[in-house]
Specification:
The protein has 247 residues and is of the alpha/beta class. The chain contains seven helices and ten strands. It folds into two domains: 172 residues, Rossmann fold; 70 residues, no CATH class. Helix content is 34%, strand content 28%. Strand 9 and strand 10 form a beta hairpin. The longest helix is centred in the last third of the chain and has 17 residues. Bound molecules: adenosine-5'-triphosphate and magnesium ion.
């Protein structure tokens, strides 16, 4: 296996619900190689977003550790690129200024960052929209602007929580293809959470299946060397994944 970029050891997380502790994630051990595109699938409420929030340091695990590029990062935020499920661009900032937010938060060099954004605008198909405010953009363009902002976190690893869930089918397909290409071009490692199994099959080098109560990974499908699938193979694979996710 190529070099590991991210791993977790025995992550456990409890939330209080009506003053009762609920075990949401239990003993989660996860590992991924650099440059891999991993899709996480699982039914609603199984703990996918909670898992990403632990990785980003937004919430802290009760027990367990997270390692990024060989260093422990448990509870530390700002190190991984993260696009939450309900990503919002700030409505009063244009595309470039939204993309500068992570740079300002980490007090990075604004001049270098602006040059980087200018070079990335065409990669993200946003070159004509640099000075547009979010309300002037279509849903697909807003999503790309949010991706651009996530990339400006300047990290090799992006965590994307259902990034295409609110888009129409055609825009979704276009952005899926585009994401595959920029992951290659920018040499990114990606964890993409989705409950759309077709999306996972189409995008993932690997699919990791999660099951809830408490949440944990229950299976891995390595797809990298098996593509392209015939329609029949894709149907069989979908059935297998679904059976594992809901059993
Ligand atoms: N801050 C919180 N406080 C209490 N319970 C929470 C909190 N965040 C999540 N939960 C609970 O943890 C469980 C997992 O939630 P999570 O959002 O991780 O699921 P998910 O797999 O991302 O679901 P979906 O596919 O619907 O986005 C759910 O039962 C949810 O109600
Ligand atoms: Mg979620």
């Amino acid at each position: 296996m190529s070099q590991s970029i991210l791993s977790t050891r025995n992550l456990t997380k409890t939330f209080l619900l009506h003053n009762e502790p609920q075990l949401i994630l239990e003993d989660v051990n996860f590992e991924m190689a650099a440059r891999d595109f991993i899709c996480v699938v699982g039914s609603s409420g199984c703990g996918k977003s909670s898992f990403l929030e632990l990785l980003t340091g937004i919430s802290k695990p009760d027990t367990g550790s997270i390692f990024y590029q060989g260093k422990e990062i448990t509870g530390k935020s700002g190190l991984l690129g993260y696009m939450p499920q309900d990503d919002l661009l700030l409505p009063w900032l244009n595309v470039v200024d939204n993309a500068l937010i992570p740079v300002k938060i980490r007090k990075g060099d604004l001049r270098t960052a602006k040059a980087r954004i200018q070079s990335l605008l065409p990669v993200f198909g946003l070159e004509k929209h640099a000075s547009h405010l979010p309300y002037q953009l279509s849903g697909g363009l807003r999503q790309r602007a949010a991706f651009l902002r996530t990339c400006m976190m300047e990290t090799q690893l992006l965590l994307l929580d259902e990034p295409f869930a609110n888009l129409d089918a055609i825009t979704r397909l276009q952005l899926q293809n585009w994401l595959k290409d920029i992951a290659q071009d920018l040499k990114l490692s990606i964890i993409l959470v989705t409950h759309d199994i077709n999306e996972a099959i189409s995008l993932g080098d690997e699919i990791r299946v999660m099951r809830g109560r408490p949440g944990n990974f229950v299976g891995t499908f390595v797809l990298k060397d098996r593509k392209p699938f015939t329609e029949a193979q894709a149907e069989d694979l979908k059935r297998e994944i679904l059976a594992l996710a809901v059993s």
